[in-house]
Amino acid sequence: MEASPVPNLPEVDTRHWIGGERVGSPATFVDRSPLDGVPLAEISQGGAAEIDAAVSAAQQAFPAWAATSRKERAELLHAIADGVEARLEELAQLETADNGALIRSHRRGVIPRVAHNFRFFADWLLDELDHPDFETRGHRNHVSWDPAGVCALITPWNAPLMLATWKIAPALAAGNTVVLKPAEWTPLTASLFADITAEAGLPPGVFNVVQGLGHEAGAALVAHPGVRRISFTGSVPTARGIAAAAAANLTPLSLELGGKSPLIVFEDADLDLAADLAVEQYDNAGQVCLAGTRLLVHANVVGEFQKRLLDKASRLKQGDPRDPETDIGPQIHPDHFARVDGFVRRAVDGGARVLLGGGPNTDLGGLFYRPTLLTDVAPDAEIVTEEVFGPVLTLQTFGSETEAVALANGTKFGLAAVIVTSDEERAARVSGKLVAGTVWVNCFFVRDLRAPFGGSRQSGIGREGGTWSFDFYCDLKNTVTAPGGLIHG
C-alpha cells in the first residue's frame, strides 16, 4: 500500500515500519477522527507475521546498537528531539485530528514534551546513570546497566506520541531495540515519528512500528519469545492478559494501568484553589488516567466549594479542539462515548443527583460529552469505584481526616491523589497514609521525569522515570573484583 494522504494534514505513510523499511499488510483498517467521524487514513493491519518480522529485525539490530557508546546513543536521541521540534506543528495538527485533544495543549506542552523525553534520557544516560563502587571485605563492587534486548511497547490513545516516547526514549537510551504497537484508534503520529527517527540517523531495525488490533498484533507481540521487556499503558483487563502471556517466557514487564484518584479538600483549604484544581480534572475531556475524579470535601465547606466549582466549570468552552479557545473536546471513539454515558446513566438510575452536565452535548452532537458532576453516591457505587475515563466527577463529603483517608483508599486503584489543605503537618500525615504512586499537595499534574512514576494495587506494576526507567529496561549487573585487581597466570 502506498502512502495515504490525510486531508489538510501532513501526509503519513500508513504502512508498518520494520527494519528501516515500509511494509504493508493484506488487511487494513480505517482510522477515523473523533472530531467528525471522517476517515483519516487506511492503516495496515498487522498480525503475527508482521510482529515476527519486526522482532526479528530488532533482534538483528540489537548487538550493534547495544555496542554503541553512551555518547553515540545520546547524540542520536538529541537528533530525534531536533526532528520532533522541527515538525512540532505537523505533529500537533495530526494528533488533534486523530485523538481529539486540544491543539493548544499539543502546541504548548504535549509535543514539546515528546522532544523533552528524548533530551532528558539522553542527558540522564551521560550524566546521572551511575552508582559509586563500594567495597566488601576488600573486594570492589561495580554496578552496571546492560541492555536487555528487544522491548515490546504497547501504548494508549489519550496522549499517543507523548506517552509512547516516555517508553521509547529510555528503552533506546539503554541500548535496547524497540517494537512499538500504537493504539489502533490513534496510529498516525507513531508512523510519522518513525520517519523522524530515520531522518535522525537511527540505524534500521532499532525502532520498529507495527500497527494493528490488540487481540492480533498486541497479543502476538507480548507472547513473542524474542521479546525481553514489555511495557504497557492501558486497562486492567488487558494487562491481565499481557501478564499471562509474559509469564510463559518469564518476560519482565512494566504496567501503568487505570486510576480512580481522590481529590481531598480539607476544611482549611483555599477553596478557590480547590475549585480550580477540580476543574482541571476535566482536562483532555476527562481522558486522563491520573485525574482526581473523586472529589472528597469536608462537610463544613462543601456548600461553598460546590458553588465555586459550578461557577468555574460553567465557564468551560466545549467545542472544536482545533480552536485555541476551546477547553474541552470530544471523546475518542463512539464505543468509548457509549461507555462513559453508560456509567452516568447507571449512576443516575441508582440514585445519583446531577449537579452539572449528565449527558451528551446535544448542541454539538457527535462525541461531545458534557462536563459532569454527580453527588449523592454510595461509597461502594460503581461510579466511585470503577474508572470512567471521561469528563465525569463525583462529589462526596467527609467529617474527619480518618474518614477522608478511608474514602480515598476505598478502591482497588492507587495511581494518584490530590490533597488541598493549608496545614503542612496534615498534608504530610495524610499523604503518608494514602495508597498512591503520586500525591500532589495544593497542585496537580506536576510531572518531573526525575521522579518515579507508576501505580499501586491495580493501577500498575513497577516505576519508571530517571534511573528507575533504566533499572527496568536494563539487566543490572554487579561485578566483584578481588583485592589487588586481576591475577595474571
From TrEMBL:
Keywords noted in UniProt: Oxidoreductase
Record: active site: E256
InterPro entries for this protein: Ald_DH/histidinol_DH, Ald_DH_C, Ald_DH_CS_CYS, Ald_DH_CS_GLU, Ald_DH_N, Aldehyde_DH_dom
UniProt key word Oxidoreductase: yes
Family matches, as PROSITE patterns: ALDEHYDE_DEHYDR_CYS, ALDEHYDE_DEHYDR_GLU
MF term (GO), any: oxidoreductase activity, acting on the aldehyde or oxo group of donors, NAD or NADP as acceptor
Ranges where the Aldehyde dehydrogenase domain occurs: 28-478
Keyword Oxidoreductase: yes
Family designation: Belongs to the aldehyde dehydrogenase family.
Name assigned to this protein: 5-carboxymethyl-2-hydroxymuconic-semialdehyde dehydrogenase
